[in-house]
Design brief:
The chain is an alpha+beta fold. It is 17% helix and 36% strand. It contains nine helices and 24 strands. It has helices at 2-15, 40-47, 53-60, 64-71, 74-83, 112-120, 177-180, 231-234, 336-340; strands spanning 88-93, 102-105, 139-145, 148-153, 158-163, 168-173, 184-191, 199-207, 210-217, 223-225, 229-230, 251-253, 256-259, 266-271, 276-281, 293-296, 302-308, 311-319, 325-334, 351-359, 362-369, 377-383, 389-395, 401-405. The strands form six sheets. Strands 7, 8, 9, 10 and 11 form a five-stranded antiparallel beta sheet that branches. The chain has a four-stranded antiparallel beta sheet with strand order 3-4-5-6, with no helix packed on it. A four-stranded antiparallel beta sheet has the order 12-13-14-15, with no helix packed on it. α2 crosses α4. The longest helix has 14 residues, at 2-15. The protein is globular, with a radius of gyration of 31 Å.
Amino acid sequence: MDSFLHSLGRAMARDLPPPPLPKKPKSPPAAPTTICVLGDDLLREIFLRLPSLPALVRAALTCRSSLRAVRSCPAFRRRFCDLNSPPLIGLFINILDFNTPAFRPLRLRPDPDIAAVVRGADFFLTRLPNNDEGSAPKWLIRDCRDGHVVLISQNTNHMAVYNPLTRALHLLPKPPRKICKEMYVEFHVLSSKEDPGPFRVICVCHEVYGAQAAVISSETREWQIFPWVEASSIEPDLQPEYKDYTTHNGVLVNGYIYWTQASRASARVLNTATLQFSRIDLPPHIGGQGALTAGETKDGKLCIICAVKLTLVLWSRRADDDCFERWMLDKKFPLLPAIHALTDSRPVDDHELKILAIVNGVVYLSIFYEPEPNLSGWFLSFCLETGKLNKLCHVLHPDSLYPYIMAWPPSLVLDKVNP
């Protein structure tokens, strides 16, 4: 009996479940991964892959870590600009009988980032003040560069420098009448990429017989007038009768203003740092060429482009075999096939190309039908690197177009006073 009970106990013991294992202590939950744990270097590498400057602005303003990574590194700013050309947002247009310039935004393709720029900016220039009588003064745009728009009031003594993106408005006095009387007057705004806050406006008054420069700073708000310079001291080879001289706006390239359309022999040059005039020779004349226009290539080098009928001719200035700097014919870009598609049934040969600006290796130009100048034309862009012609929009006023190109915003530059 005892053996039976013993065997039964052992059998029942085998059928019992094993004792539970001791419980392991619970691990603490993993910390959530956020953008704040990424280092600045990794964030900048991610931001370099964004497609445009507006996309970078939206990404950088999402949090303080992103903003710090962008603002604290000037080298990143240079790398991003090398990879992404500043975007063309639209066109300012001076229109007769309008109190302020009109703005034509570009809508080439659905782009939510550029659309956000247009919606958030003041391209209607609503902050421009009325005159003392309460009526609206007539403002004309005279320059557009680095995000700034320079406007002159036709019935007050004000000049305005306005940034539509930041809505920063500076009202300054016009230059003294004594230097502008009976002269061709133009304006150029200059700002620093490293410190986009302060700026200068250079006023150049010139005619065939000479020129004079004046400058005003956003900090001093007073005009500094430089001495009058006779044409004979700038361009001694200019013929006395001045038959081939044409007044026109100069072009600012790398701190120098070039007037390349005044004559065939040489161009006036103004150093914007010293406000001293000099001269530079021009490329050899080509039969049938239009006006010579100075600009900058994608790597920031000086270039000159002219239109010969419907072909763009590019000249670059570099050292020859004897190490002398001179103009060399770089390349010709026939545009006839591409333009033929734009002209519908109108004869291609009766169309005229006008070069408006050359910025960062992109030529902005317009094309119009000469026999009927009141017909709408096209505003185009041409990339010197890829040779691609882009149709941007219809335009009606070929002589008053000012492309607005987005500049690096001050919000993405480190404030040295209040970092």
